[in-house]
Amino acid sequence: MKTGYYELLGVSETATDADLKRAYRKKALQLHPDKNPDDIEGATQRFALVRAAYEVLSDPQERSWYDSHKNQILRDDDDYGTEDEAIPSIPSISVEELMRYFNPALYTIIDDSLSGFYNVTERLFERLAAEEIRHARSQGLKEYELFKDDAPNVNVIDSSMLKFPRFGNSASDYTTQVRRFYTEWSSFQTVKSFAWKDSYRYSSAPDRRTKRLMEKENKKIRDSARKEYNETVRSYVQFIKKRDPRVKSGISEFEKQRKKKHQEELERQVKEQRNPRITRNG
């Protein structure tokens, strides 16, 4: 189990915003390179964890999410596979595993390196998209059969052949790619059936009435699992969007261009009104 965010900052779980700010400043001073001349790299890494913890706890919405899913977020890789849970026939990421990615410390390196923000995030969304296509195909959903999001060489496949937009890298254009990515993934709806979550096997039902009760209970379990999965993916999209450097700069430039086009359109209309003959004669 990784170190919890409250523990990293040295505060209690009832800490106020003021408590968090004081604790963060104290840790920042303690871990400053000037105070750790013999271990600058280690101090820098520890401070990155402290800063990540503060970013989450100082945001009411993210703090609430963290408090509700703390154990899942902080689990180590070795903690997985210990539960007696049914395994889907098609490999599928679980909510528990997905929670690991809600750790800001994973995204402190903002570049295109293998362990950088863009690569880590892109690989996860590639996996989510590929799983959707495989599950859709296994269910015979014709509207998905031509998409190739699950191809091993997905990087070289034309975007028209992909169901889900790619996350991209640091050079991805905001207007044509990044904005579309967040718009579509923010309304994510899985096609997964979650049949592997069923509690009852219909073959063991002694009569039709019992079978109907089993089906009803299994449907309730599947619907609950599907809802949790959808909400977790959409929450992760917002989690990443908040940390994506392309978004802030992209929105600013997008708005700038939008206002420019609007102004040009107004000027064109004014010019046409002043010169009606030019408009009529082309």
UniProtKB/TrEMBL annotation:
Cellular component (GO) terms are: cytoplasm
The annotated regions of Basic and acidic residues compositional bias extend over 262-275
- What Pfam families does the record tag this protein with? DnaJ, ZUO1-like_ZHD
- Return the InterPro entries for the record: Chaperone_stress_response, DnaJ_domain, DnaJ_domain_CS, J_dom_sf, ZUO1-like_ZHD
Q: Where is this region: Disordered?
A: 207-226, 250-282
* Signal sequence extent: none
Zinc-finger in keyword set: yes
Instruction: Show the PANTHER family listed in the entry.
Output: DNAJ HOMOLOG SUBFAMILY C MEMBER 21
User: Which protein are we looking at?
Assistant: J domain-containing protein
Q: Which source organism?
A: Meyerozyma guilliermondii (strain ATCC 6260 / CBS 566 / DSM 6381 / JCM 1539 / NBRC 10279 / NRRL Y-324) (Yeast)
